[in-house]
Amino acid sequence: MTRDLSRPILLAVSALLAAMIVLPVGWLLVVSLTDKEGGATLANFVALFTDPTFVDPLVTTLIIACSVSVICCLVAAPLGWLVARTDMPLARTVRTLVMASLVTPPFVGAIAWEMLAAPNSGLLNQLWRLVSGMPADEALFDIYSLTGLIFVISCYTFPYVFILVANALDRMPGELEDASSMLGAKTWQTARRITVPLALPTLLAGALVAFLQALNLFGSPAILAIPAGFHTLTTRIWSLFQFPPKPELAAAASVPLLVLTILLLRAQAMALGRRGYAVLGGKYGAPRPIRLGWLRGPAVALALFILAMPLFLPYAALFNSAFSRVASRIVTPETITLHNVRFTFLELSSTMPALKNTFLLATASATLGALLALLIAYIVARKAVRGHRVLAFLATAPLAIPGIVLGVGLFLAYTRPPLALYGTLWILLIAFVTIELPAAYQQLGSAFHAVHPELEEAGRMLGATQLRTLADITAPLLRSAVIATWCFIFVATIRELSAAVILFTSETKVLSVLIFDLKESGDVGAIAVLSLSMVAITTVVIAAANRLHARPQVRPAT
Amino acid sequence: MRRRSLVAAGLLLPFGARVLSAAPPPQAITPELVDAAKKEGKVTYYTAMDLSVAEPVAKAFEAKYPGIKVAVERTGAERLFNRIGQEVGSNIKRVDVANSSDAAHFIVWKRQGWLEPFLTLDMAENIPADQRDPDGTFVNQRTHLSAIAYNTSLVKPEDVPKGFNDLLDPKYVGKLVKGHPGYSGTIMTATHQLAKALGWAYFEKLSKQKVLQVQSATEPPKRIEAGERAIAVDGSDYLFWMAKERGAPIEVVHAIEGTPQISNPMAIFKAAPNPNAARLLVAWIMSAEGQQFIVNLSGQYPAHKLVKAKAGRPALASIKTLPEDPAEVEKSADEIKTRYQRLFKV
């Protein structure tokens, strides 16, 4: 038998993952318990829970997370139901567009909403004044407020809940509902006693996803919170990295986020774990869509109205601002200008380096992340070596580390010997791969269940090593899943801001950080051009991957 | 009022009186320097100046010396200071030339021994001694003001404020925008001057006016042009003027209490990866040609004796300005940020 490398590989991968997680989190905890002279102390935590400049942001963040969670469920549940279970027109388009809205980075969404709903210069407020004759200093919407921030975060968070709900409703057996109505229940009774209880665990999980997302988000608060006059926990952590940097306080402020995230993930796992009963018990037919009758028109209008919030309105504002000298004025054929495009691509000397860094990092992170996830998913799914469970745990562990916390941890871990990686692209690569690994692993892990082990066993019997089998047999069979994972990491890396904003240096600036820097000086025209370019790149990559994806599939459709 | 010299401001004498000048012998711009700079092929210029001026300055230098690319790294002076501190502290050699609106930073950098002395023959002759460090480690590139300004279509003539105290009037609630001393060197310097002239009680009252808080001093001009707020409490004055000259409905107010004055020193770093291109860039920006370019484009007040201020702008000497004191700013920067944050909540 040829020498099997699987044992050393398992060890190597485990050590790598452990280092990726333990190093930043370990340093974070150590530094949070250290004073400026290096002695052990709890003073940082005392400061954290007594100083109003920390307590206020903590309270604000919790208010935001709870509100976002509720709003997302209120929006995503009916929309998910309309798309998955009714004969609403354009259902498929609506579903695609909701998912497409996720391509928008949350900080770009927030900037676009500034253009729309800044109290005085916002386009929607101007329009409203024009229509209603409201006096000049009153505003219909004020984006620089707690409600404004909650609204913007909800816009770019409800799609996650929507996907969960719509997928769960797709799988929900229609027979139970049919039986209910056959037994004489009215439509609303069926809904109350069958559909809602069956969907409830998913909705609960969705609520937690939204809560977590809002809790750990940096991009939207960073844009809106400072003009609105408050901090959230993530922007406060970031501000602690401004001069004079107080890493020990930043580390201490990261710990509540870390603990809260871990607790919520446990809760989410429990909620999703209970969902099993809904789909137990053999095969069911596809559910019959519910006829909406005369409500079809209003239903699709509602869906498009919801989509206007994350998609139609913000992109209209971005396009307007990209070709306008002043973002608060609607472009007309007389005022249209290429000034911003020229400035961004011909004058702004950071544009090209940032584009290059972003593209390089996204490609490298996607390739490395997909390979690593593939390897781990294989070892775990095939129980290839003893101790594979540890790997599964390590691969999902980064889920519990918010981006900004990971940024702080990596900064602390890699600004000192032996691995002084700060200032290189490597530290960003490590950050991006760590952040995206859990989702990549989960995607590929579920894909492995679709490939029958017999094929691999045949390869093994013919004398190939496990690795060889993985490369020659399993990987090609998983091609479409691997491509999807690659794309997923690529897109996620391009839009990442929270870790990058802590870890970048002027030489390693990426597109998201460049946009963030431009926001500081209020250069919204250039921001609009860069944001649209960013979304264009992302869309092209996804479209290209879809073409690859569309070739004959080996994997059975699941 | 006469322009206050940097010496009088204490900037150049951070540690007691130094009688003897240790400035390096003035250099000529030799063909050898130009060749060496072209061999390096690039120079990194960290600046807090608005991109609409900084990038054209870079392009003009590139046109003058083909083959040398200028990478402009712009952010607010306080973030710039942090960035340079983190990079140099982590032994990352990237900054060649730094130019910031918080003159206190140069005291720190000089004390840490990070700055490379440099003086050209032209600078020795034409940049007044009170605009230069006696040891030659930095030089004031230009001076601007942090002025009040308003959008004429949003403020009635009878409502135009005359100064800072006027802005506390209830009629301005929700109409003001201002920059943040935690991000902007202009605002840091201005906050120090105003706190000294009017007391922190002034900022406490101002914080109750529902001020729109932005970061950089380069943003309030853009916000009042867009009509988001009617009046800018502070901001880089050259951007107000540039917008006005472009046709935007903006007027500048020089406060009766005095307008904060901001010098913008520039220095070469010892660890500069492109030392020759760095010298050439500083030499060019401080030459009559470079200074004239900045004046023509932005109307900031030049340091060079032979360069006239921009026509149509008020002479610096005719404006009542507040005294600049970088040594004091250096000592109290942390306190200013903390107090400001407690009042304005961010």
Tell me briefly what this model is.
The complex is a heterodimer of chains A (558) and B (346). By secondary structure, chain A is mostly helical. Chain A has helices at 6-32, 43-50, 52-85, 91-100, 106-117, 123-132, 146-155, 158-171, 174-182, 187-216, 219-228, 233-239, 247-273, 276-279, 296-322, 339-347, 351-381, 388-396, 403-414, 425-448, 453-461, 466-477, 479-495, 500-503, 511-520, 524-550.
Q: Name the biggest interface.
A: A-B, 45 and 56 residues
- In total, how many beta strands of chain B? 13
How many DSSP H or I helices of chain A?
Answer: 26
Low-confidence stretches of chain A: 275-282, 552-558
Sketch the major β-sheet of chain B: 8 strands, mixed
The secondary-structure element order of chain A is: HHHHHHHHHHHHHHHHHHHHHHHHHH
**CATH homologous superfamily of the largest domain in chain A - what is it?**
MetI-like
CATH class division of the largest domain in chain A: Mainly Alpha
Mean pLDDT of chain A: 87
What does this protein look like?
The complex is a heterodimer of chains A (558) and B (346). Chain A has two domains: 43-277, Orthogonal Bundle (MetI-like fold), CATH 1.10.3720; 338-558, MetI-like (MetI-like fold). Residues 275-282 and 552-558 of chain A have low confidence and may be disordered. Chain A has 558 residues and is mainly alpha-helical. Chain A starts with 5 loop residues before the first helix and ends in an 8-residue tail after the last helix. Chain A has helices spanning 6-32, 43-50, 52-85, 91-100, 106-117, 123-132, 146-155, 158-171, 174-182, 187-216, 219-228, 233-239, 247-273, 276-279, 296-322, 339-347, 351-381, 388-396, 403-414, 425-448, 453-461, 466-477, 479-495, 500-503, 511-520, 524-550. Chain B is of the alpha/beta class and 346 residues long. Chain B has two domains: 31-143 and 264-314, D-Maltodextrin-Binding Protein, domain 2 (3-Layer(aba) Sandwich), CATH 3.40.190.10; 145-260 and 326-344, D-Maltodextrin-Binding Protein, domain 2 (3-Layer(aba) Sandwich), CATH 3.40.190.10. Chain B contains twelve helices and 13 strands. In chain B, helix 2 packs antiparallel against helix 11 (288-298), helix 4 (104-111) packs across helix 12 (326-344) and helix 6 (185-198) crosses helix 12 (326-344). The interface between A and B is large, with 45 and 56 residues.
